[in-house]
């Protein structure tokens, strides 16, 4: 049997389609999400409904965002879900989650077994809407979950860790083997819960500056800050900020990156690089 066909649908690689087929894993994810009537749940990539059905059973209404036209059409005629669903047949990367939360009159609870090919840019897109989001539960490549939760001093710690932890509390939920999907992906997967901080622990004055610093530092993660950030900070300035310029990007905490960004926002470098 062609293992790319699931419930009569041929899985499309370009849409990152790996459908969950393991009932125990599905139930574990749904109980981690713990959907309650009246909440504004939004699923990204409902696919053939592996999570949509058990979540939808517990709710009166559910919003889904599905790029694949055929799958969106199937959901439109789903025997018991259809009347509960608001279906956006569009790219989740173009979804305005703030507008959606406004329509729903409450913060969103976003979840999904995400297409792995776009999961990192999609996370960054969602981070820009954390004011409109109560929490998020995502199935991701295990390696991406490791990066989201990583702390300083580890190999997995990078720009994604800093930005995720700037916005959210990040909690790993469960690991999922390839066999839980049809077709099985080539990598291990894991579910993560992200809860946007009610009050940002280290607010920055300009996010673009935090982005710029973390990009510059981690793009050259083997170099010391003296070298990778030399055009933005003198070693003396870093010392004043309590950051040793002999450190590498992976040894700098989220709080320190934010402090550096705030310094730069107030003291822009005279010579742009
Ligand atoms: N939720 C289903 C499950 O667990 O079996 C399907 C998960 S599958 C990994 C990813 C789903 O996201 C597919 O249904 C795919 O068509 C959809 N998708 C892919 N790219 C998308 C995008 N940019 N925006 C919204 N949905 C997308």
Q: What is the count of helical runs?
A: 11
What ranges have pLDDT less than 50 throughout 5 or more consecutive residues? none
Question: Within the CATH hierarchy, at the fold level, what is the topology of the largest domain?
Answer: Rossmann fold
CATH architecture of the largest domain: 3-Layer(aba) Sandwich
Please tell me how large the radius of gyration is. 21 Å
The CATH superfamily of the largest domain turns out to be Vaccinia Virus protein VP39
Domains (count): 2
Largest sheet: 7 strands, mixed
Subcellular location: Cytoplasm
Family: Belongs to the class I-like SAM-binding methyltransferase superfamily. rRNA adenine N(6)-methyltransferase family. RsmA subfamily.
Main location: cytoplasm
Function: Specifically dimethylates two adjacent adenosines (A1518 and A1519) in the loop of a conserved hairpin near the 3'-end of 16S rRNA in the 30S particle. May play a critical role in biogenesis of 30S subunits.
Spell out the key features of this protein:
273 residues, alpha/beta, Rossmann fold, Helicase, Ruva Protein, domain 3, 2 domains, seven-stranded mixed β-sheet, two-stranded antiparallel ribbon, 11 strands, 35% helix, 19% strand, binds S-adenosylmethionine, transferase
Describe this structure as you would to a colleague.
This protein has a 7-stranded mixed β-sheet with strand order 6-5-4-7-8-11-9, sandwiched between helices. The chain has a two-stranded antiparallel ribbon with strand order 1-2. A two-stranded antiparallel sheet has the order 3-10. Helix 5 (119-127) packs parallel to helix 7 (159-167). The protein has helices at residues 23-33, 52-57, 69-76, 97-104, 119-127, 142-149, 159-167, 207-219, 225-228, 235-240, 254-266, and strands at residues 5-6, 9-10, 19-20, 40-44, 62-65, 85-88, 108-113, 133-141, 168-176, 181-182, 189-196. It is elongated. The protein is an alpha/beta fold. The chain folds into 2 domains: 5-196, Rossmann fold, CATH 3.40.50; 207-266, rRNA adenine dimethylase, C-terminal domain (Helicase, Ruva Protein, domain 3, Orthogonal Bundle). Bound molecules: S-adenosylmethionine. S-adenosylmethionine (SAM) binds next to strand 3. InterPro entries: KsgA/Erm, rRNA_Ade_diMease-like_C, rRNA_Ade_Mease_Trfase_CS, rRNA_Ade_methylase_Trfase_N, rRNA_adenine_dimethylase, SAM-dependent_MTases_sf. Residues 25-198 form the Ribosomal RNA adenine methylase transferase N-terminal domain. It is an enzyme of class 2 (transferase). It is found in: Cytoplasm. Specifically dimethylates two adjacent adenosines (A1518 and A1519) in the loop of a conserved hairpin near the 3'-end of 16S rRNA in the 30S particle. May play a critical role in biogenesis of 30S subunits.
